[in-house]
Amino acid sequence: MEYLPAVARQLYHSRDLGESFDFLTWFEFPEESAPQFDELLKRLRMTEEWRYVAREVEVRLTRASSKKKHANWEKA
């Protein structure tokens, strides 16, 4: 709970997605909370449960603000 509200998490189970993995965890956080997220990941990776992680993929995406999108559209 110490990372809330800076980091929000959503867990998807494979049975709901029809995929070969057990589950997918989706995190959302503002860019300024990236250090808190990195600390959260560090702590998660040190847990007993993490021993059962066979494969990890980390993808970070940044949402463009609508103001930036409109500025780019106007230039086109």
TrEMBL record:
Query: Record's InterPro entries?
Result: Dimeric_a/b-barrel
Superkingdom: Bacteria
Designated name of the protein: Phenylalanine-4-hydroxylase
Q: Which organism is it from?
A: Rhizobium laguerreae
